[in-house]
Design goal:
heterodimer; A: 318 residues; alpha/beta; D-Maltodextrin-Binding Protein, domain 2; 5-stranded mixed sheet; 42% helix; globular; B: 282 residues; mainly alpha; MetI-like fold; 78% helix; MetI-like (chain B); membrane (chain B)
Chain lengths: 318, 282
């Protein structure tokens, strides 16, 4: 009578038999180096780790870092939780939400930080050239496209509206993948978009108008994203993660000091057009998370109802 | 030159005795029509952005895309991706096929147990494979096994249901005859059930072959397991529109090749069956 279930799992079971090694697969010794796997997104922000691998910074710390650039960030948090990835890259709003939902994630180092300059950040809010919208306050009643609802995009755009004296509750948000934004804006399907590089450059190049730098409006030193790991995994092997954190910090410092090399390493893992790469606004790559900016972000998340109560941020940082 | 040979209704030397008048032209015309169809589509695709109906930045003309595909086809990375996609396709299809045939024949022979499982099958079957993506990621992360889970789940039902129908379609007279002649259980499966089921099975395989490719690509696109789908996702997140279309064209071409392959297989396997024989002699 259990046949139906057997039928369902028959294929899966066959595979599961070969899958048992998944958990510990990432830490076998390889020529004295410990192999670690990182779940990253193929975007500009993670250039420092690619550069760190290229420059042998991770190897110096005894780590053979494998970079898995899956498509979206959707697979990264589950991947880190399940042990498929030893570390991952994610924006801080996602991490705070995950932590609030009881997922044991801790940050290892900063990932990417806003440039801190109005109108010259690696992400911003754009409207068509002929739009009546002049400032973020005019977004009241408008529809703004963001890549993910209830995440860092709408939280920081709402703050831009608030800062400009508008009512953030009157702004409508619509989910749209970044790659679709330039066309949606040009054809007038949407009033405004929040886009990050390389799409910010592509949109700027086609002559659309930038009305707000939402990261800068939120905090001039906003830590946008971070590298993180699963707490139990870190507790298991603290020395290894000390080395990993040190290597991450060194890679970030190297990237910060060598922007040209950042631009050239981007060509190795993305397909961004060369002319766009030259125009890109790179994020800043300080090694430490600006905890003050994360506090601001967390307060906004409570205010906007992304999370119910003030999160305990101290447990988020390793 | 094909055009001239059809137009000048010359002696028709290759036409064998058994194929009268029409088939000779139909045989030549069919692939020709297919080619004309593709050319028309490419022409339309070329014209739409060139005429400014759609911005060329979001839909590059066909020639640009094909050129980009040509360049890409010279890189080893492209062929690795094609290989990964085909590996997910073939392995997934093979696992689904084996499981569906074994379970289908077993349960098909046990009507009572089959009756018990019907409702469960009907419950599980409509669950879209893509709904299993979170589960796949949790179990297997981003490697090939995630792709396989999706492909196997979708393809299993397609083949399994066909096998069940096939097994149920066995002619009772043939079955009784085989029994009267003293054929054992295995011999009856081999000489009575198997030939009856085969056309159904091949239909299932043909459907599953296409679905397997779709899900193989989908898994790579969404989960980021290696293959053409992931290449598309990377190109997308880089704003490389030409590359995106080039890879989509490559996926389509792969689909055509797979479909042709399965049809050839079907004709070989079922060459004795009226559905295939009928077409050849009509």
């Amino acid at each position: 009578m259990r046949r139906p279930l057997a039928a369902l799992t028959a294929g899966a079971a066959l595979l599961a038999a070969t899958a048992c090694g998944a958990q510990g697969a990432s830490s076998e010794e390889d020529g004295g180096l410990t192999t670690l796997t990182a779940g990253v997104i193929p975007i500009v922000d993670v250039a420092p780790v690619y550069l760190g691998v290229e420059q042998g910074i991770f190897a110096e710390h005894g780590i053979d870092l494998r970079l898995e650039s899956g498509s979206g960030g959707a697979a990264i948090v589950p991947g880190v939780i399940s042990g498929e990835f030893d570390l991952g890259f994610s924006n801080l709003v996602s991490l705070i939400v995950a932590r609030e939902e009881g997922l044991p994630l801790v940050t290892l180092s900063n990932g990417a930080t806003t440039v801190g300059e109005q109108g010259a950040d690696f992400g911003g809010v754009f409207v068509p050239a002929d739009s009546p919208v002049e400032s973020a306050a005019d977004l009241e009643g408008a529809t703004v496209a963001i890549n993910n609802l209830n995440n860092i995009g709408d939280t920081t755009v709402r703050e831009s509206v608030r800062e400009a004296g508008g009512d953030p509750a009157a702004v409508e948000f619509l989910e749209l993948p970044f790659p679709d934004m330039p066309a949606a804006l040009e054809t007038g399907q949407i009033d405004a978009v929040w886009a990050v590089e390389p799409f910010a450059s592509i949109i700027r190049e086609s002559g659309e108008r930038e009305i707000a730098s939402n990261f800068v409006d939120t905090h001039e030193n906003l830590s946008v994203a971070a590298y993180f790991a699963a707490e139990p995994r870190v507790a298991e092997d603290p020395e290894l993660f000390d080395e990993l954190t040190a290597a991450l910090e060194e890679s970030l410092a190297y990237a910060e000091a060598h922007p040209d090399e950042v631009r050239s390493v981007i060509t190795t893992y993305t397909e961004i057009d060369q002319s766009v790469i030259e125009e890109l606004t790179l994020p800043r790559f300080p090694a430490d998370i600006d905890t003050d900016s994360v506090q601001t972000l967390a307060d906004l998340m409570v205010e906007d109802g992304l999370i119910d109560s003030e999160p305990d941020l101290d447990t988020l940082y390793r | 030159m094909t055009a001239t040979s059809t137009d000048s209704r010359a002696p028709d030397p290759p036409a064998p005795a058994r194929s009268p008048r029409r088939p000779a032209r139909a045989g030549l015309g069919r692939p020709l029509l297919g080619a004309v169809g593709i050319l028309a589509l490419l022409g339309l695709w070329e014209a739409v952005p060139r005429l400014g109906v759609v911005s060329a930045r979001y839909l590059p003309p066909a020639t640009d895309v094909l050129a980009a595909l040509g360049v890409r086809a010279t890189t080893p990375g492209f062929w690795t991706a094609v290989g990964d996609t085909l590996a997910g396709w073939a392995l997934g299809l093979a696992i689904a096929f084996t499981a569906a045939v074994v379970l289908g024949f077993t349960l098909g022979a046990l009507p009572r147990i089959r009756a018990y499982t019907n409702s469960t099958v009907d419950f599980l079957r409509p669950i879209p494979s893509v709904a299993l993506i979170p589960l796949a990621v949790l179990l297997y992360g981003t490697d090939l096994r995630s792709t396989l889970l999706l492909v196997v789940y979708a393809c299993f039902w397609l083949i399994y249901i066909q096998v069940l129908y096939g097994v149920a379609d066995v002619d009772p007279v043939a079955e009784q005859t085989a029994r009267s002649y003293g054929l054992g259980r295995l011999a009856r499966v081999r000489y009575v059930v198997w030939p009856t089921t085969l056309p159904y099975l091949m239909t299932g395989v043909r459907l599953a072959a296409a679905v397997a490719l779709i899900l193989s690509i989908t898994a790579q696109l969404v989960i980021g397991s290696p293959g053409i789908g992931r290449e598309i996702a990377v190109a997308q997140s880089s704003g490389a529109v030409e590359s995106v279309y080039a890879l989509i064209v490559a996926t389509g071409a792969l689909g055509v090749v797979i479909n042709i392959g399965v049809r050839v297989l079907e004709r070989r396997v079922l060459r004795w069956h009226t559905s295939v024989r009928g077409e050849a002699t009509a």
